[in-house]
Amino acid sequence: MNASSELHVRVGKKTDEAVGIASFELVSEDGRPLPSFSAGSHVDVHLPNGITRQYSLCNDPGESHRYLIGVLRDAASRGGSAAMHDEVKEGDRLRISAPKNHFPLAHDAGHSILIAGGIGVTPILCMAERLALSGASFEMHYCTRSADRAAFRGRIQASGFASRVQFHFDDGDDAQKMDAGELLAQVRPGVHVYVCGPTGFMDWVLGKARSSGWPAEQLHYEFFGAEVAPSEDDDVFEVKLASSGRVITVAKDQTVVQALAAAGVEVATSCEQGVCGTCLTRVISGEPDHKDMYLTPEEQEANDQFLPCCSRAKSAMLVLDL
Ligand code: FES
Questions:
Q1: CA separation for the pair 164, 196 (Å, rounded)
Q2: Is the pTM of this model over 0.90?
Q3: What residue's CA is closest to ligand 1, atom 3?
Q4: What was the pLDDT predicted at 3?
């Protein structure tokens, strides 16, 4: 992130929204309006412990006096969500990026189906606000393990679009549970589907959609970062820089980005978890071993680009457009 796109904000309010979920209202330090954003946007938050995490904005995109983010305390946190919950307090100052949007609404949709799983509600709620404001046709499905884990439930129920939202609780009776297969059984022209939530939930919903034949251009999704776990099968391989012909070895316990950095070659990164697309790099030859959640299955199959913050190689060498 360059310094000009960096924002200095203060935590105006920290609120417990549900079991394990807190919201943080971020306001500008000098009281000037914050840069505008569109539904589906996120900001990079630079945490006091030196790591950076992406959080979706979940307030009305018409607001310029604040950004609202929701953070789930992740039991497997590597320091991101735990630091937000335990170390960041009201009044604290934070550095954030300007909003970025990798999950925009398709404005020509005749109808939108918004599907949130757990903390995935954050961008989805922002989308619902925007669609409701513009008078667009939409429905929202919000799945959580139980009612007490459904953040922003009161806000949704008090909103003008409450009647378009269905809550689905895992611990509730079967009749209220979301049947993704049934919901997405028919591909409907002009209908766009948006999904955000934990990986297993996303795989389930997108799997049902794809098996019903929903084309990629009508499916929109955003994964939350999850650590890409090292695997037993991770092996040493080489990358070659097409511009100079230089060959760099990637050790078993190193990412491509780390190996390149150690050799003095910087690749811009943000999430380092294969979700944001910042490090996207063109592959000229060789076969990547895709471990990201950013590229579509079709894009991964094409093998002409990969995310070197997490993906590796199936071939002994990858020639990169660097
Ligand atoms: S840095 Fe986000 S996908 Fe690589």
A1: 18
A2: no
A3: 274
A4: 42
